[in-house]
Amino acid sequence: MTQRQTGRRATWIWYPGDFEIRLHEKTSTKRRARGVPYPAFWRLDRHYSNIKFRYTYELPSEERIEIAAEGVFSLYLDGKDNERCDASVVTLPAGRHEISVSVFNDVEAPALFIEGPNIRTDADWEATSYQHDWVPAGCWTFDLPSDPPSAFRLAVTPQAPVSEEAVHDHPLLDFGRETFGYLRFHHLEGAGRVRIYYGESRAEALSPDACYSLDRFEAGAAARQAEDGIYTLADAKAFRYAWIHADPGVRWDRVSMLYEYVPATNRGAFACSDPKLGEIYETSLYTLHLNTREFFLDGIKRDRWVWSGDAYQAFLMNYYSFFDLDVTRRTLIALRGKDPLVMHFNTILDYSLYWFVSLYDYYLYTGDVAFVRQYYDRAVSLMDFCLAQRNAEGLIEGRPQDWVFIDWADLENDGAVSTIQIIAARSLEAMSAFAAAMEDEVASAAYGALAEDIKERTLRLFWDDEAGGLLHRRVNGVTQPALTKHASMFAMGFGYLNPDRQARVIRDVMLGSGVPRIRTPYMRFHELAALCESGQHERVLEEVRAYWGGMLDLGATTFWEAFDPTLADGAHYDMYGIPFGKSLCHAWGAGPIYLFGKYFLGVRPLSPGCASFVVEPHLGGLDWMKGAVPLSGGEVEVDMDASRIRVRATGGQGVLRYGLDGETIELAIPSDGSWIEAGLR
Amino acid sequence: MTQRQTGRRATWIWYPGDFEIRLHEKTSTKRRARGVPYPAFWRLDRHYSNIKFRYTYELPSEERIEIAAEGVFSLYLDGKDNERCDASVVTLPAGRHEISVSVFNDVEAPALFIEGPNIRTDADWEATSYQHDWVPAGCWTFDLPSDPPSAFRLAVTPQAPVSEEAVHDHPLLDFGRETFGYLRFHHLEGAGRVRIYYGESRAEALSPDACYSLDRFEAGAAARQAEDGIYTLADAKAFRYAWIHADPGVRWDRVSMLYEYVPATNRGAFACSDPKLGEIYETSLYTLHLNTREFFLDGIKRDRWVWSGDAYQAFLMNYYSFFDLDVTRRTLIALRGKDPLVMHFNTILDYSLYWFVSLYDYYLYTGDVAFVRQYYDRAVSLMDFCLAQRNAEGLIEGRPQDWVFIDWADLENDGAVSTIQIIAARSLEAMSAFAAAMEDEVASAAYGALAEDIKERTLRLFWDDEAGGLLHRRVNGVTQPALTKHASMFAMGFGYLNPDRQARVIRDVMLGSGVPRIRTPYMRFHELAALCESGQHERVLEEVRAYWGGMLDLGATTFWEAFDPTLADGAHYDMYGIPFGKSLCHAWGAGPIYLFGKYFLGVRPLSPGCASFVVEPHLGGLDWMKGAVPLSGGEVEVDMDASRIRVRATGGQGVLRYGLDGETIELAIPSDGSWIEAGLR
Fold it and tell me: Which residues between 60 and 119 in chain A have a beta carbon less than 8 angstroms from any beta carbon of chain B?
């Protein structure tokens, strides 16, 4: 019950999560492979079609309200459901009354907008799916009756090609760098077929029989759909190049495109004495921004799906750059979906587990306990679902129907995989933190004990003292000899190894020559983070220069899904047996954002919402670096060279930590934005 | 894998159950209260939007197929999901190959139709919702590409009013009896408003401010939508009368209606020496037929929803009349819906339990073990859900969010209600039978033991020897003194009482004067069945004549939701505090169909599919009766007077059982349709 609150803004409301679930359903079916639909291969959850909203008011005099709904609605007062009304203008009686509004919509999520002098839909309203579940209504920024949630689309802005050349008499447009959006024909005329071959690379656009994305249309019909003389194609594509084949009778003035994007601004910054690293940072940012959309996507050309393991990394990069929490929350909601849990997220066991760690990171970087509360029950049921797969030794194994992914590599993943156990332990620690935030100390302790248990078992059963790391898997109670970097680096990243073992892992596993190399930026993200955790900053910068710099040397304008520097020039584009199947703009390629912010600028939250944080900068051999990292309620700036560190922060209880003459020194950082400086000589 | 089978017919296929689930979603939101939407107040389950079909073929030569889909589709062979095609004509290669077709549709259930000389969609195809669930595809009678499942609608045929009179200068049409469909205006002309007030009764149609169903339209706009000079209203209504108010400028030739119905034919029959009973039988049939629609509805005017307790009775009536198994299966599927189970069916605990008994009856009357197999898993999970509500004494109690209904009567239903336990015991017996049909003897025995346990506890804890019946409920381990007929009559109907207790129940509860009377035809159905079970046939006919005959005496053309003969003439139409809120065409009013068929003609299945059955006719004081009852694979005819019984049957192992000189005699009934005769003197 809320008293009249003059001044609150009316906004569209819905059943919480259903806007995101519906948007995810639509987004997950946009993929086209050479023009042919290719929907996600997992269950796509759906919004509730039948919803009821309620709100109790107290008014000194009657009030006229206007009602808009997405769906068929009816309104009644004080539970009198046989006295319904579906007029768009209603006069509410004075006094204390409960409004109920049922909305049914089997296409888009049912949504409601009510506006009166005092009575206005907002998060104070409640919603039910008729499952004994009155919950605060979902809402966002749809504050006009003419701007309903179902009409949501990203921002667009025109872009022109930077060059055009004729190849075999057909125009090849180059937009200068990877982009995403809708091609547009200005003043299209004539009749005949038009075919467009898109390419992330020039080679792809020039391969009509093999490029991944293409469009076909008939010019006459298209011209009739033009608005203000411009025909805009219906589906957005990811591309840098477009090669346009048209029948002889077809003419146009020029071709441009409508760039589609989330209007996010970078709240971080990074510059340093090595301009290559600066270029890598900027290219990473752009790569991440292109994949920051309705949700964090894996890549913008091929799948365009929401993958939990990919999103886990995008979340982390985002905390050090755009700090866009809308996309983060949408992605967390879409991944969790609805019950019943039958398959794992994206069908992958590890990807269900990453969700806990992702939600924990969200909590840590934002302190948004309300969101954790909203999803706590679903976190509990997801954990129950995962724990049900423990074997006789208490280790989590994939079921026959599960994909245990870990990495694109030659891995055998049946039995109990050590990396899974490590992520599971971290997930249980996350659950323990969530339960504590819910003030359920019993559950918190129970999850904590489970985390300890699985961690202890894993370190005991998989640690191989000869190899100096965690072996990869255990089958029928027997640990197998195969050694991979994955479990060891996750264990190190989560702080699960004692200093001795950490040193062994660095020497024998991470830097050892006998262990299979990691080839995906996906796992290099974790690998390089682990190396940073153990102080190998210089080594990491070398790797970044070679790996990401290697892509730049090949002309990359965004970072790729995979990169093998040993391949010949033209051999980089195929993947999964598909010509040009490799995504050249893949979120997980943007890892340097995270590495630079967390391990070089050195900013790390210590408690939820960055209420306390540490700044522990490392030059890693650079002459100087400076940059910024967003905080939940402010930002941190770091400026360092070999002689001194300067730091300022707005908000939070920050500590600058650095070494001097073999000693570790800590200085409190004022929260008022004033600079402090620490000498290093 | 299926070899080529020339001659099989192509038919539309879908994920099994999803056609029904989607139809149910649409049907459950058709209710309008005085023109205002009134959707069902429970979660409406939804079809999977993302589906994949598969089929493995072996062809000696390549073959051209045509593909139609409801939704966006793509096809590929042999798991090569990166080589998709969405052409509507495809040439399949010779040899052995697996076809996969993904179909996405977020509005209607994804459906597929493929037709080639040999390759044709049908029940041999499989479907998955991407949940590790390859199951046989659903299909029905949609055998043309131009007749997709989403276009399903019931049959229609024109009807004309039997009379028209002017009341206050507005035409009042009388269609002679209750009907259902779309009003039509022939040669509508002019401009102005038209308002239609519908009535199941004359009084209702003549109450513009209170009638339940109404329509409003503007004549000019309507006339422009006319086809062949006829404007048909968009929404169907239940009514006998329609009072039409039109502005002066509006004219039309005549008004008729399009009757909407399931083309089911009565395979039963009943006639007897009392013409009143014949009229009751025919009116019951018509009442049931009107409610036999997309699903078995409760009533056609008000809710138009699928209620499990109501459907339970309609199913039974249907086995003695239309034997329409399509509507039965659709209703069973819609009621079970999808997981997760959070609330009970229609929010009512008893209504979840009735589903087991209904499915058991379906199995018993049809022998359709394939359908039981398809829903066995969902039956198991529903039973788990119900059993989770057992209290410390092992009795099932309603949760705070549950509606424990039992009957429209002054009942207190918190704590453990005895009627719930009796229906639960029967449900567990049903589960035991299903498990046995699945050849899971362990589960069958376990369910059987649970049934025995709950039955034994109930009879022990609720039987009151002084009252001679089962008391109504038990709260915190204390059985409360209130006595109702419900539990005792269910226990008797299910054969749970020994002869002594049965006699006590008949004398002290069923016929005793101190027990609250049952007022709804809903529970009179069970009450009269219980009386028949104990041989009170004459008494039952008296009740039928008084109760159903009483409605006929008041001019009923279909039977009502409730009837209190003591009310004044004009006082019959209100219910739930709504003027004209009472449904005058309610499925549960058609109970005599079942009573006459099962207890007077006396035909009862003894084993699934009526493989064996008994015919035990009772005249109940009539001079003669004759009639027919459908069997799964034939029919039974009975012709009886005081001197002899004649019986014939087509199919099944039937036994005629009758009494002669105090002895019970059994005669085998030949299955070839020839008559046998037994003398009674």
Answer: 72-74, 81-82, 84-86, 102, 104, 106-107
Query: Is the pLDDT reported for residue A338 higher than 80?
Result: yes
What residues of chain B, 131 to 170, have a C-beta less than 8 Å from chain A? Answer: 131-133
3-state secondary structure of A219: helix
Interchain CB distance below 8 Å, A49 and B50: no
Residue A449 has pLDDT above 90, yes or no: yes
> Quick check: B82 and A577 CB within 8 A?
yes
pLDDT digits (tens, 9 = 90+) for B506-550: 999 999 888 999 988 899 999 999 999 989 999 999 999 999 999
What pLDDT does A630 receive?
97
Nearest residue, CB atoms, B36 vs list A26, A74, A104: A74
Say yes or no: A142 and A49 in one domain: yes
Spatial distance between the Cα atoms of A572 and A560, rounded to a whole number of angstroms: 10
Is there a single domain that holds both residue B248 and residue B162?
A: yes
Compute the Cα dihedral for A30, A34, A36, A39 and give only its sign: negative
* Domain match, B184 and B244 both: yes
Residues in chain A: 681
pLDDT at residue number B4? 42
pLDDT in tens, A605-626: 999 999 999 999 999 999 999 9
Whether residue B108 is predicted with pLDDT greater than 70 in this model: the reply is: yes
Strand runs (DSSP E) across B105-192, as ranges? Answer: 111-115, 126-128, 135-136, 138-139, 155-159, 163-167, 170-186
The answer as to whether A112 is a domain residue is yes
Flag if A44 and B50 touch (Cβ within 8 Å): yes
Q: What value, to the nearest 5°, has the Cα angle with vertex B126 and ends A304 and B63?
A: 90
Which residues of chain A does B102 touch, with a Cβ-Cβ cutoff of 8 Å?
37-39, 41
Residue with tokens 């600079």: A675
Count structural domains, chain A. 3
Q: What is the CATH number of the domain that holds A139?
A: 2.60.120.260
* pLDDT score, position B44: 98
Q: How far apart are CA A526 and CA A532, in angstroms?
A: 10
What sections of A7-100 are H helices per DSSP? 18-27
Residue A1: the pLDDT is 36
Please check whether residue B234 touches A, CB under 8 A.
no
From start to end of B93-249, where are the E strands?
A: 95-104, 111-115, 126-128, 135-136, 138-139, 155-159, 163-167, 170-186, 193-199, 214-218, 230-232, 237-246
Residues of B within 8 A of A129 (CB-CB) are 43
Are B144 and B18 in the same domain?
yes
- State pLDDT tens for residues B213-263: 999 999 999 999 999 999 999 999 999 999 999 999 999 999 999 999 999
Residue A76 has pLDDT above 50, yes or no: yes
pLDDT of residue A8: 78
**CB A149 within 8 Å of CB A111:** yes
Size of interface A-B (CB pairs under 8 A): 130
Boundary of a domain, candidates A98, A122, A151:
A151
Q: DSSP state, B299?
A: B
Cross-strand partners of A625: A272, A640
Residue A340 located in a structural domain: no
Which chain B residue's Cα is nearest to A29? B104
Residues spanned by the domain of A80: 13-151
- The C-alpha angle A295, A296, A301, rounded to 5 degrees, equals 100
Chain B contact probe: residue of A22, A26, A38 with most B CBs at under 10 A:
A38
**pLDDT at res. B633:** 84
The predicted-structure confidence for B346-358, as pLDDT tens digits, reads as follows 999 999 999 999 9
B38 and A74: CB-CB below 8 Å?
yes
Q: What is the DSSP letter of B573?
A: S
Contact B84 A49 (CB under 8 A): no
Average pLDDT in the B372-385 region?
98
- Please report the residues numbered 546 through 605 in chain B whose beta carbons come closer than 8 angstroms to any beta carbon of chain A: 576-578, 581
If you search the block for the tokens 């704590």, which residue do you land on?
A: B415
